[in-house]
Design goal:
Layout: H1 2-21, H2 25-64, H3 69-96, H4 101-118, H5 120-135, E1 143-146, E2 149-156, E3 161-165
Antiparallel strand pairs: 1-2, 2-3
Length: about 170
């Protein structure tokens, strides 16, 4: 987190400098807004990078166990954590800038219904991936045949399972 920490410290310096410069009016508001955006970006960036630390820790724990289930869950947890950090960080940054986030979230209630209908296939794929991981009809490294495709399972993700075929192509 060296780069985001440097950006964080620099933006704090800029924020303090703006107070010492005693600017007035629109110039102060504009520069303060820009520095607050940079400060928020640095915090979100640092939290995003810290997700790698959590992932490495979880991978270490998963390697100590004999079960393959946790080996499959770590990448899913890692992706979910990153998405959570970006979404929550963005909402908190918008709220700290003085915008009303609650009205945005309330508006998403109605828009969420339309989004849920549009994301029906994605949700089905997500639950399908969870079922594959929990039921374990196959694992990473197994040779499987699906329809007219066959190959070694390379990755089981949210939306898809990747196979490496006999001809070394990724499907």
């Amino acid at each position: 987190i060296e780069k985001p920490s440097g950006l964080f410290l620099a933006s704090l310096f800029w924020l303090l400098s703006l107070q010492l410069l005693q600017l007035e009016g629109l110039t102060l508001k504009l520069l303060t807004f820009v520095v607050q955006v940079i400060l928020s970006v640095s915090i979100i960036w640092a939290a995003y990078r810290l997700c790698d630390v959590v992932t490495a820790y979880l991978l270490g724990l998963a390697q100590k166990t004999e079960s393959d289930l946790d080996d499959h869950l770590v990448p899913l947890v890692s992706r979910s954590l990153r998405i959570f950090v970006v979404v929550m960080g963005t909402l908190l940054a918008i709220d700290n800038l003085g915008f009303d986030v609650m009205s945005l979230i309330a508006g998403l209630g109605l828009g969420g219904l339309a989004f849920a209908l549009a994301a029906k296939d994605t949700a089905a794929n997500l639950f399908g991936s969870v079922m594959i991981i929990l039921d374990r009809p196959f694992r990473i490294g197994d040779w499987i045949k699906v329809g007219d495709m066959e190959g070694t399972v390379v990755n089981i993700g949210f939306r898809s399972t990747r196979l490496r075929t006999f001809y070394d192509s990724l499907v």
